[in-house]
Amino acid sequence: MKKLGVLLALLLFISISSNAQTQTSSSPNGKVNLSFTLLNGKASYSLTYKGKQVIEESSLGFKIKDMPDFGNSFTVISSDKKSISDSWEPVWGEVKKIENNYNELAITLRDNATKPHVLRIVFKVYNDGVGFRYEFPQQENLFHFIIEEELTSFNLSGDHKIWWIPGDFDTNEYAYYTSKISEIAQMAKKRDGAIFTATPISGAFVQTPLMIKSADGIYMNIHEAALINYPCMDLKFDVGTFDATTALAPDAVGNLAYMRAPTHTPWRTIVVSDDAREIIGSKMILNLNEPSKIKDPSFIKPMKYVGIWLEMHLGVSTWDYAGQQSASDATSDGKAKTKVKHGATTENTKKYIDFAAENGFGGVLVEGWNAGWEDWFGQWKEDVFDFVTPYPDYDVKGLNQYARSKGVGIITHLETSGSATNFERYMDTAYRQMAYYGSPAFKSGYVGKIIPRGEYHDGQWMINHYNRSISKAADYGLMAVIHEPVRPTGLHRTYPNFMAAEAARGQEFNFWSEGNPPEHETILPFTRLMGGPMDYTPGIFKIKKSYYVPGAKEQVHTTLSKQLALYLTLYSPVQMVTDLPENYLAKKDAFQFIKDVAVDWDDTKILLAEPGDFLAIARKAKGTNNWFVGGITDENARTLTVDFSFLDKGKKYELTVYKDAPDASWDENPEAYVIEKITITNKTKLKVNLARGGGFAMSVFMK
Ligand code: NOJ
Ligand code: CA
Hints:
- This protein is 18% helix and 33% strand.
- Among the domains are: 2-287, Beta-galactosidase, Chain A, domain 5; 537-571 and 588-703, Aldolase class I (TIM Barrel, Alpha-Beta Barrel), CATH 3.20.20.
- The chain has 14 helices and 36 strands.
- The strands form six sheets. Strands 6, 7, 8, 9, 12, 13, 15, 16, 20 and 21 form a ten-stranded antiparallel sheet that branches.
- By secondary structure, it is an alpha+beta fold.
- The N and C termini lie far apart (86 Å).
- Bound molecules: 1-deoxynojirimycin and calcium ion.
- Calcium ion binds next to loops.
């Protein structure tokens, strides 16, 4: 009997193993290993890093609507391998040249339906992770179809530590949670109320980019690349497991994605390393996007910009003409706001243009210049803005002319209040007007519930809308910055006029809510910024709101030096010089750093990094021998040592350090800083003390 049992087990083993087909592919350096397995007609994958299992067997595939036989039993009809080793130069970026080296494994599957379907899964295995996508080739039995469920999962190897925001198809403007995977559902019950349009999903749902750290020190980041004509992917952990399954944003009638073969999905990405610095330094997501479609990118210019913006967030001026609409109607202790006036007047805009010109900033953002703000907020109204009609006290033509005569461009604000249909209706007219008057860039925004009603910010319809707004902008020679869109997925490689997005909780929350905790900016590079630059709006010098509104409790959870560091640690080719001009003029020595710091780079070195704790990044300004360094900490004071071995050997550099004063801290003494100048070489190692919630910034000029 016992023998029979052994024999049966052996037979079973043989039948399973003969049934299982495994194909593998390794990264060029051999550290990342991908396995694809087909067992009993079902496809799965797993991943190891330096021999350790980091993704256990995880499912692949789809349920297709009204096609129950799709993928019910796959067989491999071919598998192809190739190796790619090349490089490319971005129009702007963190480095001059990007290496693109990977090994590809492409598996073609056919199911055994009466009318069979074909699915291709392409894996690209890089030294810093793996990207894979599904391709639906042209075929007889699959043409138009609707995705009912994407079965892709990421089966993590343990109850890892993760940095996450709650699953939500309408917003990503949450503060981050740090917890074990097993704690998500419990923690997600505490939501932040200051978000305008939140539709959180209950349960263990999280958004990507999801940052992960295992107990044995392996870092991973799960996200997606090249999100085009498909909904955004959130992740759902099944209770009691560490297996995250894809949750796609549905449309107004509950469908996920409308497809037509030949087509493909975005790439699913897993960046992996045992060095946290390599996660931030990874260029895999960019590499997985298509090369630039913009033939003449000469209109695309990275820049620093000032703007009529903070005034409204502080509640000292308004977006609307009549003086009603600002972001802060009252302070946290209920006191009414101080006297208000319309911000975007011709006179005020000129003041900002002059300030930008005097200090070498390329742009002036103007919000509240156009009619519609009277009923923009919370109405779910379709026809609020026409994006072209100015208020009577704003001279569009004259101001654009004045700005251009001073070498400055007006960044035109196009708030949609969520009415994407209205923006689509007026897009050509609005872009044409901007191009005609010479406004080089716009900032669009989606505060509010989306119209078409029932659509989410992250659904397929809106993904297509954002992408149309970018590609059409390129046709008009315009640069785009988008607030409240889906989080980016590296599309700025394909459309380098897509300069930055918000798509996370920005600085603005500090002015009218409990704000962002001091750790926030140490997490963003590992999460939101994995997909692309963020328009965070750094550079606040007046840290406490009580300066403007007596009794106000709101403040930026930072020291002044940390605000300088953010120009390095939160990468973007457009960076706002956010504070009011008078606050900069009151501290000209610290302001000098913002005037000096570059926004486009030949090289970047991630010097020190740990998600949620600290970060130090050095960047070499494009076309120069000058470097800038920024370092930040969370709520803990700490000492960071900057090793300058990245500098040229045998050269001398003048280093200016902007750092927290010994008695500085984000809560008690946030504006105290000291500035020191010394001469250094590539042998220098410098210890810097960072205050609680503090940071430092350095300019390093070759002598
Ligand atoms: C929210 C955006 O993030 C902010 O920058 C803008 O000022 C307001 N919406 C008004 O459009
Ligand atoms: Ca926002």
